[in-house]
Each structure stands twice: as C-alpha cells, then as structure tokens.
Amino acid sequence: xxKLKFFSLNIARVQNDDAANLFEWTLNVGEPVxxxxxxxxxxxxxxxxxxxxxxxxxxxxLRESPYTPSINVGRIQNNSLMSEVxxxxxxxxxxxxxxxxxxxxxxxxFYKPYWDLSDRPLGNQIKDxxxxxxxxxxxxxxxxxxxxxxxxxxxxxxxxxNTSLSSNxxxxxxxxxxxxxxxxxxxxxxxxxxxxxxxSVIEETVNLMPTEETLELFTNMNELRIKxxxxxxxxxxxxxxxxxxx
Length: 246
Hints:
By secondary structure, the protein is mainly α. Helix content is 73%, strand content 0%. The protein is built from 9 helices and no strands. It is elongated and about 70 Å long. The chain starts with 15 loop residues before the first helix and ends in a 14-residue tail after the last helix.
C-alpha cells in the first residue's frame, strides 16, 4: 500500500486570518470522529484545541473591530503602491537609456531590503515601510533618481497611506488590548506548532494503524490543506488580520 502523505503546506506563509480558518476547520472535521479514533489521535486533536483556540478567538475579535475594514483597505493600498514602485524599477532596469537604467539599478539596490514588504506581518510592514520612506527622503541622490523615474508620486502616496494605516493599526491594538490582551501574532506560534504536531500524528497513524475514521479525517484535513495552499499566492493583495512546513 502506498504511503499516504499530507499535501505540502508551508504554515509560515499562511496569513493569520487564513491560518485561523484552517485551524478551526480542522478542529471541526475532527470533532465527529474523535470518539472513534485511537487515543493518540484524540490526544493530538485535544492538544490542538487547547493551543489553537486562543489564537482563533483572538483573530475573530480582530475581525469584529471597527478599525479592521479601514486597515484592510489601507494595507491593500500599501501593497498596490509598493508594487507600482517595484514594477517601475524592474522595467527601467531594462531601459536602453543609460541614465534611466543606471538610476533603476541603484534604486533596485536601495529597495532590495524592502522588496518583500507585503509578505511581512502587518505591524512589521508598517514599521519597515516608514523606515524605507525615511531613508528615501533623507538621501538626496536617491530622491533625484526617483524623480527621474517618476517614483516620487507613489512614494508620497505611500507615506500618506502608511501613516493612516499605522494610526488605525495602533488604535485597533489599543481597543483589542482593552478587551483581551494578547495579539493574534503573539498566539500564532503555539497554534501553528500544535497544528503541525497534530498533522504528524494523524499522518503516522493513517499509515501504521489505518481505520475508516482515521482515513476520513486524513482526507478531510488534506482537502483543507490544499484549499489553504491556494490562498498563499493571493496573500500579497489580501489583508491580514494581524500580523512551518509540515
């Protein structure tokens, strides 16, 4: 019999909102068969419930915050503006005009540490975007090269939008803090580890001691992994509620 393996899913690349859905759906598909599976699988599901539920609950609270819609829109705008800057630099690096090509090459070096801003946790994205803008404005040579390539307009818009995004983000932290305490990001590591551990137990069990119920659980969890993996490629333009491969 061919060994069953879960679909490869890099949990670290799954945004908090999607991770909370994955964890909750996994617990939901496990509940109907929990009384029919081995004690080891039951313990794995119970442990995941204990360690992931605080994270799921906190992400749900973030969804309910009145600041979340504005934050979602603001992050999409940040991502869009940064994408515009990156597209311009990449395009101009192929320019036949030596001056423009040289400017783009220097700007590419400047932006390199910030190229993946949209993939970073929201708090880090906001902080690092501010840092990037400060360095850009403080370097007259970089500003001159940016002016040549028409980057000053999107950079100015990014500064304005990021400031607004930061204000809403901090307001939400304060509001959530009054209601609960820990952030989704703080609770994510334990939740992710418990999910990875649970998957390992179920994958091992379905191969060594297969039963109809364990196979059903494995199949349902695998479908959830496939669906979640499909969301990763869209995450750059998808707002995260906060901010491992098995």
